[in-house]
Design brief:
The protein is built from 16 helices and 16 strands. It is of the alpha/beta class and 591 residues long. Bound molecules: 1-deoxynojirimycin. The site of 1-deoxynojirimycin has 10 residues, from loops. 1-deoxynojirimycin (NOJ) binds next to loops.
Length: 591
């Protein structure tokens, strides 16, 4: 158990590992990861050195959006297990010294949720419809949607139902948005938060935390539709009708009272893609307590951008009056960092556009320099892990996995792909959601070196299918054959692998930095524009106060390191002890 896990504020410096359950580990051979798989891999997670796991949704779902379309918030999808499996998993995590965080999806339900079925049955004007956002359409017979808003997954943001009314959905049509002015909706989530807390859950990740409060009534929808889009999530003037509205904070103040009913209080982190200056509002101790800062994930491989991302994160934590910074390089919505850093860096193209274009063209439009991508991803993780606050690691990141761009279109699951239209071309997020490789298959590989298409042994993701007639199904997304080079067993045995770097870095982080209990002190170390260097208070191996430094070289020439002892480096130093390009080092500085 690490020092910070013994206190109520364990989350302030926690390293949280995100599990995308359907792609983590399959124990029953149906090709879909399950809760028992998380339990089975608890020793792996413990050895990795993380403090907590966050599970993406594992609730009953039609999988219109990878589980973010929830049919029942207080149960486990039968394909993933049972509530007993969940309780066993929590017990195993706690025994291993790990906290458990579950995902709450309050902006929308599945269209199969009881609320929505009741809304359809009850008809227009009913109390059941008031739980969602139903409106009459435009045109002589209401045949046109209330306005022209487009959903975030492409296609109209309004869907018509049989009796002619329309309902609003930010995401897929199978994800109707809830009306948070309705008391039943509030009650449903109050119950849900208590339900999972009573089952031993230590915290919550709040999906689309900036989207719940909507004001579609103060002004005609047609007018709003001309002024605002669903896509523009900024709310500088406080008037955006759906994103980052001030009223959303009332909801979280109420939730805080629920979190505080428990001892220790339950933790929450909000997913809010808001401008950095608004992040702290969600992270306030009266509300969720913490918020994701996605600025590192958005930054190209560029010292200036990374520095600004770090500054934003530190500032936002300071403004929140009690929260800590969060550092995110990957999650299940973002092209994997090892690939992002392997592609051309063209900051002007905007958020992940190069990677998304590359994925859209099945990985053929740009050269993916994997050696460079790996080298930079190694450097990035040291830069990130030394920072004050919490770090979120997405499954497979610790193996250095690349994005799988060439999943055949007919195997894709993400709705962004199927909703692709002339105006909205996006192959989606499945490339970072491919089931993990756990063991290196000894099976002879097919001559076609492109894709497995599920004919192989799934690299230990599902139970082996060696016996004739064995039942294991193909992994739900196809694994490429190159996954074998990234299997956890192989990397575990290789001291120079990404996994070994993560393990060592996490161990050192816990001993040197987390153990000080100081999760705010931070100073830049000026080493020129192309170098990101900073210092923090630390404990040396004897437990005496010391000064830690992290140095990352983004430039093209090696740089001399400050005087001190090097603890860890992401690449070999040159013959003169200098830090080469695209590399990081950790040091304890000489007094
Ligand atoms: C954010 C989640 O991370 C993403 O995967 C999902 O599609 C949307 N919210 C909608 O729930």
């Amino acid at each position: 158990m690490t020092a910070n896990n013994t206190r109520d504020d364990w989350w302030k410096q926690a390293v949280v590992y995100q599990v995308y359950p359907r792609s983590f580990k399959d124990t029953d051979g149906d090709g879909i990861g399950d809760i028992a798989g998380v339990t089975e891999k608890m020793p792996y997670l413990q050895a990795l050195g993380v403090d907590a796991i966050w599970l993406s949704p594992f609730y009953p779902s039609e999988l219109a959006d990878g589980g973010y379309d929830v049919i029942d918030y207080r149960d486990v999808d039968p394909r993933l297990g049972t509530m007993d499996d969940f309780d066993r998993m929590v017990a195993a995590a706690h025994k291993a010294g790990l906290k458990v965080i579950v995902d709450i999806v309050p902006n929308h339900t599945s269209d199969r949720h009881r609320f929505f079925r009741e809304a359809l049955e009850a008809g227009r004007g009913s109390a059941a419809r008031d739980r969602y956002i139903f409106r009459e359409g435009r045109g002589e017979h209401g045949e046109l949607p209330p306005n022209d808003w487009q959903s975030l997954f492409g296609g109209p943001a309004w869907q018509r139902v049989d009796d002619g009314q329309w309902y609003f959905h930010i995401f897929a049509a199978e994800q109707p948005d809830l009306n948070w002015k309705n008391p039943d909706v509030r009650e449903e989530f109050d119950r849900t938060l208590r339900f999972w807390s009573d089952h031993g859950t230590d915290g919550f990740r709040i999906d689309v935390a900036h989207g719940l409060a909507k004001d579609f009534d103060s002004r005609p929808l047609g007018e709003l539709g001309r002024e605002y889009t669903v896509q523009d999530q900024s709310n500088h003037d406080g008037r955006n009708p759906m994103w980052d509205r001030p009223e959303v904070h009332e909801i979280y103040k109420e939730w805080r009272a629920i979190f505080d009913e428990y001892d220790p209080p339950r933790f929450a982190v909000g997913e809010a893609w808001v401008v950095p200056e608004h992040q702290h509002l969600y992270a306030s101790p009266d509300e969720l307590g913490q918020v994701f800062n996605f600025e590192l994930a958005k930054a190209d491989w560029d010292a200036g951008r990374m520095r600004a991302a770090i500054e934003d994160g530190l500032e936002s934590a300071e403004r929140s009056g009690g929260s800590t910074s969060t550092w995110v390089m990957n999650n299940h919505d973002i092209p994997r960092s090892a690939t992002r850093y392997a592609l051309p860096q063209v900051p002007a193209r905007g958020k992940h556009r190069i990677a998304k274009d590359w994925i859209l063209r099945d990985g053929k439009s740009y050269y993916e320099d994997r050696t460079l991508g790996t080298r930079r991803a190694r450097a990035a993780v040291l830069m990130e892990m030394g920072l004050p606050g919490s770090v979120y690691v997405y499954q497979g990141e610790e193996l250095g996995l690349f994005e799988v761009a060439d999943i055949p279109w007919d195997r894709l699951e993400d709705p962004t792909a199927s909703r692709t239209s002339r105006n909205f071309a996006d192959k989606g997020r499945d490339g970072c959601r491919v089931p993990l490789p756990w063991v290196t298959s000894d099976e002879p590989q097919p001559a076609d070196w492109n894709m497995d298409f599920g004919q192989g042994e799934s690299f230990g993701f599902s139970p082996a299918r060696k016996a004739e007639g064995s039942a294991s199904a193909d992994p739900h997304l196809p694994q490429p054959l190159w996954f074998k080079d990234f299997a956890a067993d192989r990397e575990s045995a290789d001291g120079s692998s990404m996994l070994s770097l993560y393990r060592t870095a996490l161990r050192q982080r816990a001993k040197l930095l987390t153990a000080t209990g100081d999760y705010t002190s931070f100073d830049w170390l000026g080493m020129g524009h192309d170098v990101i260097a900073y210092t923090r208070p630390a404990l040396d191996p004897d437990g005496s106060p010391a000064t830690f430094a992290s140095v990352t070289n983004f430039g093209s020439v090696p740089v001399a390191l400050p005087k001190g002892s090097v603890l860890l480096a992401s690449a070999e130093l040159d013959a003169d002890g200098r830090l080469p390009r695209d590399a990081s080092a950790w040091l304890l500085l000489d007094e």
